[in-house]
Structures are given as structure tokens and as C-alpha cells.
Amino acid sequence: MRFLQYFNGRWNSIRNKIFISTLIFLIIPFIITFNWMNKTLENVIERKIGSSAQESLYLVNLNIGLFLEDMLRSSVDIATNPSITKLLKEPESFTPYEKLRLNDTVLNRLYSSYFTNTYVTLFDREGRWLSTSYLPEELHQQYVGAAWYKQMFGKPYQQKWMFNYNERLYLDRKPIITLVKTITELQSARNIGMVAFSVSEMDLRRYLVGLKGEVYLVDQKGTVVSSLTKTMVGQSLASDSYMDMVRTSKNGQEIFEKNGEKWIVNHGTIGINGWKIVQLVPYDTVFKEIFDIRHTNLVLFILIFIVFLLITFSISYGISKPLKLLRKRMRELEEKGFHSTLSVSGPQEIASLIETYNRMVKEIRGLLIRVKEEYEQKEDMRFRALQAQINPHFLLNTINNIKWMAYIRNNEEVGDMLSNLGGILEGSIGRGGSLTSLKQELDYIGNYMGLMRMKYHDTEMTIDVPDDLMDQEVIQIMLQPAIENSLMHGIESSSEAGRIAVRAYEAERCFVLDISDNGVGMPPERLEEIRQRLSGEASDANPLPERIGIKNVHDRLRLQYGEQYGIRIFSTPGEGTTIQYVLPLCRANRGDET
């Protein structure tokens, strides 16, 4: 509490208001704008850099794709060579010299300028081989014994891209990229052999030189096929977090964190075999110039901010100092009861303010006198109002005395009438508000029916209300107009004994109370007229006097609870009328039941 008082006191200072208002309406928007412009600039540059990186990556992707397409084209040339197909179908028809010559003229020739060194090996269905490089028996058995080898021979027109690093190597032990393709006879669609066309990983690496950062060419398993970092060739990147992003999209750019640092990863997919080109660039390296500019701007902003605060403080202090002096003198004047004037020297504006204030002091002194007189008049009127409240209570006490005198003289009928009248009067003057409980309202109706039975002595009223609804909140004198209408306009015109039924229940999360009688009912046109009056659609230029009570209650219910609540009327000629009250379920406040 003391803190709030201190804060409010400090905030009410003109100097602090000028200072804080300047801070809120000028400095803070400037900071937000400065930060937004920096962020926008960073996003624009990020998109531009990302677009440039994607273009570079696209060119590398295109060149590698052409490289791999040349490998595929070279394999197809070998597989469709008539001499090769004849060798695979009829190996016994070729002498060792002819095989050696075929190796030199077909397998060992330069198929593309992309390749500096190629390795070509032919396999027939029996596992015999012909190669441009020596293939040790151990590696030969690894080929022909592998599951993929047998699976490929089982289906025509198969091909498989592989990266050979730790196994299936030639004698020179260099990392190679291999395309294995079945050689299928067109007439019978039967595989007659297989060609393994391999190139050195060094031939692919040269296409990655144009990209900055860490660049990897990885296969579907995440193994690095080629990289500018030689030590990463053959390593697996499958466990790295950014590889999940790379696998889920064909091309794109993402930003991720690695070892507490932000990185940008650009990636593209080679269409011919689904391998990925991955480029990793440190975020700070890309945006170093932006960070330097932002740091310089921040230093300049802090300097401008400090200068601006000093200027603002000087201006606010120059304005608040004479006003503080004026406030001090005004407090002294207040302690004297406004019986003296102020004499303060100062700037022209302050002097003019003091003169105006001195004139106001005289008027305030006169106002204080008038307020005192009005207060004394209001106290007198309040006393008179308290006296006026004694009259209804005096009348109630008088009725009770007469009631007991009637009972003493054995005039029970007069005593009952006075008792009911006293109950109605007590209910009218003893309630503190416009709301009450259903139980009190039913007690009020009981007293009212006690009086009405003097005229309608053969009329009976039954009440069917569950105990848990007796505390339902209702408005005061809500049921009396409906009971009165049932007696005067329904039962009085009927030749039968009158019956009025009061029933309360819950329906669709609402409190519903029906008052039904067995009177003469209403014709449809009269019922429709009354309904229109209740809804407000009909003109009330000449309202029916006997319907004003119902309309009044209906309007009070809608004002209290909402437009969806109120009174509904149902009637059938010759059978009776039902007046239905619809209210929200709500317990009455016990404090109102006094």
C-alpha cells in the first residue's frame, strides 16, 4: 500500500509525467521501430542470401546430375554393345586375346571428359568377370555373394547407385562412386550379365568447390559420398539433427542450432538417384556485416538516448520548479482555511495563475457556506423521511391489534381477513429490494387468496413446488396479477367451482412456474392481442387496464434477466388459461428475505 501511495505521488508530479510520457510515447516507439527495421532488414538479407545460396546449390546440383547421367549413359553404351552382349551369352567363343582386346576397346576407353579415372567390371550369370582394374578374389566374392547382387539378377532392367569406401574396392583402394546395372536381353527380358561402372570420388569433389562452408554429398543412408573436407568422406551424418529436415523436403533452407551456435543449412536433391547436397554455413559468418552495423547503430542510439534524457529532464525540471513552489504556498493557504490570499512572485504565467487562484478562493469560501447550509437541509429532510416510515408500521400494528380484538370476540372471519391484510401489508413494506424467494412470494399469495376467498369462497388453490425450488429467486409481487386475472376474468364468469393450480419445475436449464385455472378461457383473437402486447409489437395507446399488471411483470422480468425470459400465456376457450413464468435458475439471496 505504501509503495502504491509513493508511486502515485511520484507519478502525479508534472516533471515525472513529462519525463515518463516522453519515454513512453517517443523513446519506446523509437526502440520498437529500430528493432523492427533491423529485424526486417535481417529477414530481407536472409532471404536474399538464401536465394543466392539456392542458386549456387542449383548449379552444383545440375553439374553433379550431368556427371551421374554420363555415368548412366556410359553404362548403357557398354550394356548395349553387341560385342559385350555376345561375350556374356557365348563366353567360350572368345579367346583370351579377344577378351583383352575387347577390354581395351570397349571397357577401358574414355567415355566422358567428366571422368579422370574409370573402373568398369562385367559379370556374367556364372560369376565370371572382366574388368579394367584387377579385382582380388576376396572382393569378387563380396560382389557376387551380396544379397543385392542376387536380387538384381532376379529382375530385368535393374540399376543401383553405391558408394564404395570400406568394402568392394579395387586394388588401388580409392573411394569410388559405382553404378551397377543389369544387362538385359531385349527379346527374352532375361538378364545375361551385369556391369559395374565406377568413377573416383575426386571427380565429384571438384564440383563442390564453388560452395562456401561445409559441403557434403550424402546418399540415402546419410553417408558422405563426397566432401571438400576429405576426412568426412565415408562418415555418417544420419544422427545429426538437421538431417531430419533434409530428408523431409526435396530442396530448401533451414536454420538450426548445433553446439550452442546457429547454422544455416541449404540442401538440394539430385533427381537421378535421390542423393542430397548439404551445405552448412555458420549463421554469424553470413550476417557478420549486419551485426557490425547493428552494433554501431545501437551505440549511436544509446548516446542519442542519453542526450535526449538530459534535455528532457532539464525542460521538465524548469517547468516543475515554480509549480512546486506554488503548491507549497497553496498548502499553507489551505491550513489557514482559505481566509488569506497568495502573494507569489515568478514568471508571468505563474503570476497570472496566482491572481486567478485568489479570485477562486473568495468563490470557494462562499461555496463552503452554501454547502454547509444545503447539508443541514438534507439532514432535516432525512429526519422527516425516517418519521414518514413510522406511519406504515403504525398502521400494521393497529391492524394486528384490531385482528386480535376480533379473535377475542370470536369474530374469526374478520380476524382472518385482518390477518391476511396484515400479511400483505407486511410483505409490501418489509422487503429491502425488488427480488425475493419463491417461498416468500407464495406466502404473499397465500395471504392474498385468504382475502379473495371472502368473495370467491368456493375457489381452491393448489401449490405443487419441489422443496429445492423454494429458494428460487423471483421478483416481488410477480404472481399476484396472474392470480387476480384468473379470479376476475376466468373463474368469476364460470359456473363451475374455481380451481387454481400453481406448479413449478425445471425445464431446459430454466425455472418454469405455471398458474392454471379452469375459467372460461380466451378466444384466439384476444389471446393473440395479449401476446402482441407482451412482445411489444402492438400499440399501447389504449392499453387494457386489466392487462397492465401482467405486462408490467413481463417487462420487469425481461429487464431483470434478459429478453429470453418473461411471461407466456396459453388459453383454450371453455377450458381455462395458463400463465407461464420463465426465469433463469438462481437461488435467492438470504439477505433479501428480511
Secondary structure layout plus pairing:
Blueprint: H1 2-11, H2 14-80, H3 82-89, H4 96-107, E1 118-124, E2 129-131, H5 137-145, H6 147-153, E3 159-164, E4 176-185, E5 190-200, H7 201-205, E6 214-218, E7 224-227, H8 242-248, E8 252-258, E9 261-269, E10 276-282, H9 283-286, H10 288-335, H11 348-388, H12 390-408, H13 412-429, E11 435-437, H14 438-452, E12 460-464, E13 473-475, H15 480-491, E14 499-507, E15 510-517, H16 524-535, H17 548-561, E16 566-572, E17 576-584
Parallel strand pairs: 12-14
Antiparallel strand pairs: 1-2, 1-5, 3-4, 4-5, 6-7, 6-10, 8-9, 9-10, 11-13, 14-15, 15-17, 16-17
Helix pairs in contact: 2-10, 12-13, 13-14
Question: Please, could you describe this protein's structure?
Answer:
The protein is an alpha+beta fold and 594 residues long. Among the domains are: 338-376; 453-592, Histidine kinase-like ATPase, C-terminal domain (Heat Shock Protein 90), CATH 3.30.565.10. 52% of the residues lie in helices and 19% in strands. Helix 2 runs antiparallel to helix 10, helix 12 runs antiparallel to helix 13 (412-429) and helix 13 (412-429) runs antiparallel to helix 14 (438-452). The model is unreliable at 385-391 (pLDDT under 50).
List its salient traits:
five-stranded antiparallel β-sheet; about 600 residues; Heat Shock Protein 90; alpha+beta; elongated
End-to-end distance: 38 Å
CATH topology of the domain at 453-592: Heat Shock Protein 90
Specify the overall morphology.
elongated
Q: Whole-number average pLDDT? A: 78
CATH architecture grouping of the domain at 453-592? 2-Layer Sandwich
Which CATH class of the domain at 453-592 is shown?
Answer: Alpha Beta
**How are strands sequenced across the largest beta sheet?**
2-1-5-4-3
Q: Percent helix among the residues?
A: 40-55%
Rg, nearest Å? 52 Å
Structural class: alpha+beta
CATH superfamily of the domain at 453-592: Histidine kinase-like ATPase, C-terminal domain
Please provide the count of β strands: 17
Low-confidence regions: 385-391
Largest sheet: 5 strands, antiparallel
Total helices: the number is 17
Amount of beta strand: 15-25%
